[in-house]
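ok so i was messing around last nite and threw this chain in just to see what happens. nothing serious, just curious
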Amino acid sequence: MKFLIGEALIGQGYEVAHIDLMIGTKDSPVGLAFANALSQLSAGHTPLLAILRPNLMTKPPAIIVPKVTIKDMHQAELVFGPVQAAVAKAIADAVEEGIIPKEEAENLVVIVSVFIHPKAKDKNKIYYYNYGATKLALKRAMRGFPDVDTVLWEKDRAFHPLVGRKLTKLWDPPYLQIAFDLTSLNEVISVMKQIPESDHIIYEVGTPLAKRYGAEIILKLREVKPDAFYVLDLKTLDVGKLEARMAADATANAVVISGLAPIKTIVEGIKEADKTGIYAVVDMLGVDDPIKRLEKIKESGYMPNVVELHRAIDVEGEVPPPWHLAKDVKEKFNVLVAVAGGIRPENVPEVLAAGADILIVGRAITRARDVEGAVRKFLRYMKPDTDQFRIMTDF
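result:
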């Protein structure tokens, strides 16, 4: 029994072709779905056999299923015309070229799901785009593309044409975390608009800002930077589960829990963050011995994604820089380390050498006269953007 799946997108504009297909033996789930599709018709999504011309279907037989509901004869003519012919020709050519072994053609069936935009008009584009996409999807199905390693490599680099690249994981440190402790939404938005785009910038909704506007201020900031990674600094001291859920509901990518909170509060926050798919950050501001505190948290069986080593503004001249513990934390615990307090462009190399993964900077950027210039002074120590050396047609 064989059951393979392939996908491909080729073209542009309203005529773009997006093919999803299944190919398998007649005794596989594909064979059963093939029979059901022919015997159980659906209004607006009527399946049709792929034919090279009337009275000449393909081998292996193939069914074409429209993804978009057909509402008029114009759409129907496109599916029963250039799409049907293109899919059939792609399958026949795939057999001739050995993509589909000729000796297996009688034992296989194909189900091809096609996308035709209601505004598509150019029949030549529709034909050639769907021909290429069907053939490519068949190649990928027969070869098992993509393999799991490719998916894991691409998942954080991928750019979806309709969505962009949403940053959900901090997979490529170091990062510059810009902390907004301003209390005016208009001022925050003004500063954000001056910050250059970068895969290695993340944003922090500081505690004062969150207290004034609530967690859902993130939705306002996403109007300016929709794809960004947002850290909601609630400095949770109680009801960890509730506040982590509030952060997730507001589309935050991470929630900050105070390291001074009871262990149960920290653990409940970490568990809820993990359940809702966001990061848990434990801020060690005010914690006398961060290593000992982390060991206590680890005893519960849970650990945060990020540990923030945080020196308060009021004691900058009295205690050592927060990054001096970074290597110790990373050696003992499988976490990212963020550092906050006293980071400036001139000491960034020292901070990175100490093992920091995330550099949290506030006033040095948000109060700068030249915001973009201030950001770029830090960005020169970050990695290039993910897609800087890639082209749109990769894969």
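not much to say yet. The mean pLDDT is 94.
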